[in-house]
């Protein structure tokens, strides 16, 4: 019997040869277009996210498939995987983080420049998963703030792409003042950062 | 040719009444000795021209919480590479004073294995050059493989015991 597949069952025809990002809301007339700076910057940022993969186990293998030709994260502007935290926007933690690895994740997060986002891929990074044991960190949100959690053990590439698209959504809608807000400072403070 | 019987005879000649508890589970000769003479026994097994147990395969500990006064066993797995013979040597110690002499003088490989045994069981290897945790986080304030400590992470706050098969209403 054929295995039921829940993803990509409908063949979606290509709308045009070149897809363009949608125009933000604004006012336009002959020769001008006016919108808010937030939206323009959000549009630029969300379509050029540089991910930093922090892959420690099987979820990392799924990420390799996600970056490959078949699933192709490059379609969402994230083909440039950086291996220097200084240049990256999105920390992707994929896999079990042992307690001894916790300070390393935090160090990498601290080395990233603002604005920065974090995605916890898979059950282990999100909650410790099946490794409810003395040596494993019970979710990376104990050491760094997390924006998006992707469930699965390991999640399929589609799920990772879905997580990245949710990050894109957050990035596109983020107010430029968010990182200066007292709430954000309090959040970082609760992790002992700054 | 070296046999389990030969090894037993040699040990009983050298350490009468001290080497005890001979067993041969699955053909592997096992025995124990008081912890004070562990180095003497290891040295004898190493130096003896017949026995030549010169390779330390493994060094670990076992916790038997019900054995009063001999709760912790330190187990040495030794290998004679020439005759391809293996033996297992145990010493028992009181958990309240888990001092055992270090084998690092005899086997360099004992260094990390003793650190691991200290890390997980808290066996204090007297004379070890660098006895500190090797695998666990340095801040850890207990020895996780001792039976009184539950396996699960005690800092977890978001896990439902029912989902992990630990009690709850579904059983």
Question: What key phrases describe this protein's structure?
Answer:
heterodimer, A: 194 residues, alpha/beta, two-stranded antiparallel sheet, 6 helices, 12% strand, globular, B: 171 residues, five-stranded mixed sheet, two-stranded parallel sheet, 3 helices, 19% helix, elongated
Topology (elements, then pairings):
The complex is a heterodimer of chains A (194) and B (171).
Chain A: E1 27-29, E2 32-34, H1 37-46, E3 51-55, H2 58-67, E4 90-94, H3 102-111, E5 117-121, H4 122-127, E6 148-150, H5 157-173, H6 182-190
Parallel strand pairs in A: 3-4, 4-5, 5-6
Antiparallel strand pairs in A: 1-2
Chain B: H1 4-14, E1 20-23, E2 29-34, H2 38-47, E3 55-63, E4 72-80, E5 85-93, E6 99-101, H3 110-121, E7 124-126
Parallel strand pairs in B: 2-5, 6-7
Antiparallel strand pairs in B: 1-2, 3-4, 4-5
Summarize the structure.
The complex is a heterodimer of chains A (194) and B (171). With 194 residues, chain A is an alpha/beta fold.
Explain this structure.
The complex is a heterodimer of chains A (194) and B (171). Chain A is 32% helix and 12% strand. Chain A is of the alpha/beta class. In chain A, strands 3-4-5-6 form a four-stranded parallel β-sheet, with helices on both faces. In chain A, strands 1-2 form a two-stranded antiparallel sheet. In chain A, α4 (122-127) links the parallel β5 (117-121) and β6 (148-150). The longest helix of chain A is centred in the last third of the chain and has 17 residues, at 157-173. Chain B has a five-stranded mixed β-sheet. Chain B is elongated. The mean pLDDT of chain B is 89. Chain B starts with a helix and ends in a 45-residue tail after the last strand. In chain B, β3 and β4 form a beta hairpin. Chain B is α/β, with parallel strands linked by helices and 171 residues long.
């Amino acid at each position: 019997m054929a295995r039921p597949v829940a993803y990509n069952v409908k063949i979606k025809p290509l709308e045009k040869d070149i897809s363009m990002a949608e125009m933000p809301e604004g006012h336009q007339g002959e020769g001008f277009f006016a919108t808010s700076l937030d939206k323009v910057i959000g549009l630029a940022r969300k379509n050029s996210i540089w991910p930093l993969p922090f892959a420690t186990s099987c979820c990392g293998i799924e990420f390799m498939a996600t970056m490959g030709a078949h699933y192709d994260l490059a379609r969402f502007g994230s083909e440039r995987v950086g291996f220097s935290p200084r240049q990256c926007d999105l920390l992707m933690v994929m896999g079990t983080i042992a307690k001894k690895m916790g300070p390393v994740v935090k160090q990498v997060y601290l080395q990233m420049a603002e604005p920065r986002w974090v995605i916890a891929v898979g059950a282990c990074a999100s909650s410790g998963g099946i490794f409810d044991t003395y040596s494993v960190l019970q979710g990376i949100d104990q050491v760094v703030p997390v924006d998006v959690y992707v469930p699965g053990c390991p999640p399929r590439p589609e799920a990772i792409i879905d997580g990245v698209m949710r990050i894109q959504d957050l990035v596109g809608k983020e107010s430029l003042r968010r990182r200066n807000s007292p709430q954000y400072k309090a959040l970082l403070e609760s992790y002992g950062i700054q | 040719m070296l046999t389990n019987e030969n090894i037993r005879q040699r040990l009983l000649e050298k350490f009468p009444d001290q080497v005890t508890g001979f067993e041969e589970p699955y053909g592997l000769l096992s025995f124990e000795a008081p912890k004070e003479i562990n180095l003497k026994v290891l040295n004898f097994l190493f130096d003896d021209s017949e026995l030549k147990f010169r390779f330390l395969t493994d060094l670990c500990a076992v916790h038997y919480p019900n054995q009063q006064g001999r709760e912790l066993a330190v187990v040495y797995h030794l290998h004679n590479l020439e005759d391809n013979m293996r033996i297992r040597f145990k010493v028992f110690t009181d958990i309240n004073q888990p001092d055992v002499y270090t084998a690092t003088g005899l086997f360099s490989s004992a260094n990390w294995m003793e650190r691991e045994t200290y890390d997980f069981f808290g066996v204090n290897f007297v004379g070890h050059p660098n006895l500190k945790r090797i695998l666990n986080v340095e801040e850890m304030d207990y020895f996780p493989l001792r039976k009184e400590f539950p396996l699960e992470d005690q800092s977890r706050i978001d896990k439902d015991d029912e989902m992990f098969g630990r009690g709850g209403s579904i059983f």
